[in-house]
Amino acid sequence: MTYFFDVMSTLIYDPFLIDVPKELNQDVRTFLSDKDRYAWIDFEMGNIDEAEFARRFSKDGKQAYIMRDIIWANYRWIDGMKELLISLREQGHTICTLSNYPTWYHELDRRVSLSPFIDRHFVSYQLHARKPNKKAYTIPLNTMKCSPKQAIFIDDRKENCDAANELGIRAILFHNAAQLKEEL
What is the per-residue pLDDT for 55? Predict the structure, then answer.
């Protein structure tokens, strides 16, 4: 079986909603009120580099780097997920990531040592496709020479799971490691 895991809020804690507002002393809505949210999508798609993202994201460009530094400082494994990956690999399964994320993915990997547990990474900035777009699923399936029936997709977003299901991939909506382990 080939497992495709979302990364943020599935394997790795996402600092954006809690740590960024806490360190900036403002809620997420206030922080984003004057930001170009489409800049993030273009950054995740690999259509722009980090410097262009920063220029587009906020008027002074500095907010993107401040946000980045807070996020980078707070990456960590979600409890139980590293152990679950180890168990799946010991059972002979193939483990892949399938993540909507920009080039920051490399820093995430460096900070939490994700790669030792992963056979292949699929990241939106490299695929030029974001979940739930069909292409974001079909490229990894084709690359891994894996049929939808041979795949399991795990994500914390229902719309991404629904898109996988529509392609014939068994999808599991992630809540926590114990729930996922039980469903598997």
Answer: 96
69 and 79 in a common domain = no
Nearest to 33 by CA among 23, 43, 24: 24
User: Does residue 132 have a cis bond before it (omega within 30 degrees)?
Assistant: yes
Same domain, residue pair 61 and 83: no
Q: What is the edge-to-edge ordering of all strands in the sheet holding 94-99?
A: 120-123, 94-99, 2-5, 151-155, 170-173
Residue 37's domain comprises: 19-74
Same domain flag for 178 and 110: yes
Do residue 7 and residue 35 come from a single domain? no
In DSSP terms, 99 is beta-bridged to 123
Residue 3: predicted pLDDT: 98
Q: For the chain, what is the domain count?
A: 2
For the record, the structure tokens of 166 come out as 């529509």
Beta strands in 6-126 (DSSP E): 94-99, 120-123
Both 88 and 136 in one domain: the answer is yes
Residue 177 shares a structural domain with residue 87: yes
Q: What is the pTM of this model?
A: 0.95
Cα-Cα-Cα-Cα dihedral sign, residues 83, 44, 70, 25: negative
Residues of the chain with pLDDT under 50: none
At residue 137, the pLDDT reads: 98
Per-residue confidence (pLDDT) for residue 61, from 0 to 100: 87
Q: How far is CA 118 from the centre of its chain?
A: 13
